[in-house]
Amino acid sequence: MKTRAAVAVAAGKPLEIMEVNLDGPHDGEVLIEIKATGICHTDEFTLSGADPEGIFPAILGHEGAGVVVDVGKGVTTVKKGDHVIPLYTPECRQCPSCLSRKTNLCTAIRATQGQGVMPDGTSRFSIGKDKIFHYMGCSTFSNFTVLPEIAVAKVDPAAPFDKICYIGCGVTTGIGAVLNTAKVEEGATAAVFGLGGIGLNVIQGLKLAGADMIIGVDLNDDKKAWGERFGLTHFVNPKKVDNVVQAIVEMTRRGADQIGGADYTFDCTGNVTVMRQALECSHRGWGQSIVIGVAGAGQEISTRPFQLVTGRSWRGTAFGGARGRTDVPKIVDWYMNGKIEIDPMITHTLRLEDINKGFDLMHAGESIRSVVVY
Ligand code: NAD
Ligand code: 022
Ligand code: ZN
User: Fold this and answer.
1) Which of 12, 17, 137, 161 could form a disulfide with 35 if both were Cys (CB 3.0 to 4.6 A apart)?
2) 106 is catalytic
């Protein structure tokens, strides 16, 4: 079949809207009509050419929602008409990682996904004789796309596509980092660095978990009001204090010994200097610092090992530690019954033809999330 897509033809060039060929689903695969997709930072990272693993031409996009329109042989868990969210972290429930219960990083299709092809080693997308690569196993910047059955989560058909697409990455990453990775408890103190599309979802996760003190840190003062909308209790602009680590330690001094530091801290910037600050303002003896931000290629983190010897833990999370087929439908239900909010974070809605504007808005820091509606 033919489908309309925004194609990343080469690094550093704007996406080009064109018609491409799409082969139907092979065994174990499903054909999805994408109804809406968010634009996220890794799409930009890959398009810019800064991602050493980026391959072109490719169809980017990994934050979508849509409807199953066809299924390949052997598919049993979804059928035509089901509403689904594509998963860049699949859940096969059979590989050693899935069976371990210790990680969400399923390995079933990892190698081929990284190479931009389907599990059988071929691409479903082409223009004439030239193949086009898949991206993060999703390619949601195409109106129709093919995914392995293990990489789709079946969700409530009453849920609006233009909102729940955000659950395909940002919402689940932020909320999951709090609930699955950090396992924040009631009454905890927390600091969130970077109040963008991920940090705001960390804040709403902390609120759900019952955290008492939620400190937001951002260079942009406008983010204070954004944070407060989702449960922020304190705000620090690092440009306006001598030392942001010291400022947070002071704010969190508690108990007879008056030792300061947050129980949990989250990096949602991808900046390695910020990652160090987040670790070092976590509490001596038990503070946990969770790295969510993805740093540029070749970047390294550092701290004095004394920070770890004195009981702080430095951890990271991918897709909020969520097992997609199990957890994503639950998060859609939380949205549908009002337990979490999504609508206010979607600041811009665009047509596919205007997708490059979504990238411009992200560069300019003017959007929390832009969503393309097909
Ligand atoms: P964003 O651009 O919307 O937000 C980043 C925020 O950080 C902005 O508000 C900015 O003002 C602030 N900031 C920048 N430098 C800062 C500094 N030095 N100190 C304090 N604040 C600072 O980005 P986003 O969509 O929220 O994504 C954040 C990061 O999360 C990205 O690196 C993204 O790639 C990553 N991410 C990771 C996963 C995962 O699974 N681990 C999933 C999705 C996104
Ligand atoms: C999503 N991300 C950032 C913004 N939006 C993001 C990027 C990378 C990962 C997770 C989220 C990530 C963490 C760890 C891995 N990835 C490796 C997983 C593994 O090797 O098992 C990651 C993922 C997918 C891809 C690359 C890296 C890909 O499909 N190309 C989950
Ligand atoms: Zn993303």
Assistant:
1) 161
2) yes
Q: Are 176 and 326 in contact (CB under 8 A)?
A: no
Contact between 371 and 349 under an 8 Å Cβ cutoff? The reply is yes
**Shortest-distance atom of ligand 2 to CA 106:** 21
- CA–CA separation, 275 and 256 (whole Å): 29
Atom 31 of ligand 2, nearest CA residue = 89
CB 92 within 8 A of CB 150: yes
Q: Is 294 in the pocket of ligand 2 (CB under 6 A)?
A: yes
pLDDT digits 0-9 by tens, 253-297? 988 999 999 999 999 999 999 999 999 999 999 999 999 999 999
- Please spell the DSSP secondary structure of 65-82, one letter per residue: EEEEEEE-TT--S--TT-
Cα distances (Å, whole numbers) of residue 158 to 37, 52, 340: 17, 40, 16
Looking up tokens 């983190």 gives: 301
Give the atom of ligand 1 at the shortest distance from the alpha carbon of 198. 26
Asked if 123 and 133 touch (Cβ cutoff 8 Å), the reply is yes
105 touches ligand 2 (CB under 6 Å): yes
Residue nearest to atom 4 of ligand 2 (CA): 42
Q: Spot the catalytic one: 4, 26, 33, 95.
A: 95
Closest CA to 374 of 14, 3, 2, 35: 35
Tens of pLDDT, residues 185-218: 999 999 999 999 999 999 999 999 999 999 999 9
Catalytic pick from 91, 98, 149, 323?
A: 98
- Exposure letters 219-233 (e unless 16+ CB within 10 A, then b): eeeebbebbbebbbb
